[in-house]
Amino acid sequence: MKVIEHIENGNGNTQFSFEILPPLKGQNIQQIFDNIDPLMEFKPPFIDVTYHREEYVYQEQENGLLKRKVVRKRPGTVGICAAIQNKYDVDAIPHILCGGFTKEDTENFLIDLGFLGIDNVMALRGDAVRNETYFTPEREGHKYASELVSQIQALNKGKYLDAEIQNQAETDFCIGVAGYPEKHIEAPSLDSDIHFIKKKIANGASYIVTQLFYDNEKYFKFVNKCRKEGITVPIIPGLKPIATKKQLNLIPHRFSCELPDDLIMAIVKCKDNNAVRQVGIEWCVAQSKELVKAGVPVLHYYSMGKSDNIRTIASELF
Ligand SMILES: Cc1cc2nc3c(=O)[nH]c(=O)nc-3n(C[C@H](O)[C@H](O)[C@H](O)COP(=O)(O)OP(=O)(O)OC[C@H]3O[C@@H](n4cnc5c(N)ncnc54)[C@H](O)[C@@H]3O)c2cc1C
After folding, report:
1. What phi and psi, each to the nearest 5 degrees, are found at residue 272?
2. Is pTM beyond 0.90 here?
3. Whose Cα sits closest to atom 8 in ligand 1?
């Protein structure tokens, strides 16, 4: 079922969903199931599975020169989606990127997803590969997520890259896209970022999932601005409980979001990461309760492969 249908079926009640990462190459899928199992009692209508493109690693050779090696540390997005739908009978949402994909790769990827009975995709640009400052699209690929949305929407209308293909079966994907309450790191302003989000919606996306944030005011202001710009689709808040002291520096850097001073101070005072985890849970519960009160359609948690804190949070709300 499509995400927008799940939201309609919720009849105004906030639903629970979460995102997982494929395991590192070499690890077993059982660890994914072990993290999903404890969250199933909260009846997620859908589970997102991230996509991780290739990375470049540099290995020093005997002659002192560096050799570039291309590695994909977390393959398996499509397989995990199929396994989730099969095992739990819950909609799995694969993330799909512009980065590393030609238009042809994208089309073939979408055909696989359609055959697997996947009804939703999250369309993203992806970040620059490590060691590069700016995102570089493939020569025959997309530069922005809005272009990727257009290709998915074209396939939904039976338009393939090769116009001479016979039959032209239509896909029927519900398309999600990213939104940034504190603006995307490369965007010159929030207004400009919202302008381009609007383009993703105009090109066929049906809902937005936000980047993580720790100050609900930022989310509320973002939603208001989007509404003023005529964006009417559901805007699902994304939340991630802080779990380690190191994340105090890592999260603002990695996700370009500010941490409120009260939260920073509470974490600074913690003696160890067990205490930080508890502070992170309490903060996230308070954020979640306020968002439920505001009537958000879904609370979407970034589990990063560890479900114990998400379970504690969900048990306070669902
Ligand atoms: C909910 C969510 C899930 C994510 N999942 C993944 C994942 O699974 N794998 C992964 O690698 N990354 C993931 N990301 C990270 C994402 O790929 C990065 O944030 C990336 O840098 C931007 O992706 P986007 O889809 O928002 O890009 P876009 O919407 O293309 O925007 C990128 C930048 O370009 C600007 N822009 C857009 N269109 C134009 C235009 N026509 N002209 C000029 N500027 C323009 C925007 O304002 C923005 O600054 C996720 C992010 C979120 C919020």
Report:
1. -150, 180
2. yes
3. 50
